[in-house]
Amino acid sequence: MKDMLIILLMFAALIFGFPMLLNGIPVQQAEPGEAAPAPVFPDTVNIFLTASGEVKSITAEEYIEGCLASQIAINYEPEALKAQACASATYALRLMGELKGSGELPEGADISDDSRTCQPYFTPEQREEMYGGSYERYAANIREAAAYGKTHILTYENEPICAVYHAVSAGSTCPSEYVWGAALPYLRAVSSPADKEFINFECVNEMKSEEIRQALIAYDYGIEIPADPARWFTDMSVNEDGYVISVKIGKNTFSGGDIWRILGLRSTAFAVTYANGIFTFTTKGAGHGAGLSQYGANSMALAGSKAEDILHHYYPGAQE
């Protein structure tokens, strides 16, 4: 069970490259002199299930439970699960506002289970396939966390925040501008020192220069790439935790988030060396590094922190 959950956690870190929602969502206008009502998660969610092609109406709690089952190690502490449930619900609510009327979803759908455009969700059948009978051991914690998430939405200026999250930070979280190019006040660098204790905190992987060349061309067909791979990845700027702020490939400047997405790296905190046609990437943590660190949240919960403490730590300035 432990090995399976670690694999799930690492898989989540690699695929959950959420779209940034920077424009905000429409909020209900208050009458003159009245405060605008706080955003509320709907009682039901119409989710487009990509595997079956159907739009299914489920309760809010069922949706959040499915998000938790697909996004975080289910044996984590109850308060960490609550914090993740709040992040998942907040992110979904903001996403629903952005997608409404956009034409990106089938008619009648509020959201999708496609991790490329929305956030992942496991149906009950997928949960059974993933966890088998061991899911029931943690089901009560998952249900309690889902109920908490529905009623606790994180806001900034009365709008749901971009409540992004990741598996393991590099020792502190990554400012949003390093990943998506926009600085959000509640996605700043905050300390998460326990993440350095993660069993696979630092990893090394190799890529052939031709693999990288093809990935760059797929990203931008007109990109100018130096013939000599030794001239790639120059002028790299990193912060004190190792997150890449910017790096050059020829005349092209990329953010750490750009390279993370283009090459499918494990983390936006990386160092790179080159020899004999092979690039070696050494990464720290897992995921984009912004917002909630799931491993850090669990460490805080083990130390006695409540969900609200965890949320206020990883999303400074956000209101609950």
Please explain how this structure is put together:
The chain has 320 residues and is of the alpha+beta class. The protein has 2 domains: 2-19 and 40-198 and 288-314, no CATH class; 202-284, no CATH class. The chain contains 10 helices and 13 strands. It has helices spanning 2-15, 60-71, 78-99, 124-131, 135-151, 176-180, 209-219, 256-263, 294-302, 307-314; strands at 44-49, 54-59, 111-112, 155-156, 159-160, 165-166, 202-208, 234-238, 244-249, 252-254, 270-275, 278-284, 292-293. A hairpin with a 2-residue loop joins β9 and β10. α3 crosses α5. The radius of gyration is 20 Å and the shape is globular.
Tell me the total number of β-strands. Answer: 13
Total discrete domains: 2
Proportion of β residues? 15-25%
Radius of gyration using CA atoms only: 20 Å
- Major sheet characteristics: 3 strands, mixed
Question: Which spans have pLDDT < 50 for at least 5 consecutive residues?
Answer: 1-7, 10-15, 22-32
Give the helix proportion (percent range).
25-40%
Order of helices and strands: HEEHHEHHEEEHEHEEEHEEEHH
Tally the helices. Answer: 10
Average of pLDDT: 90
| Shape call | globular
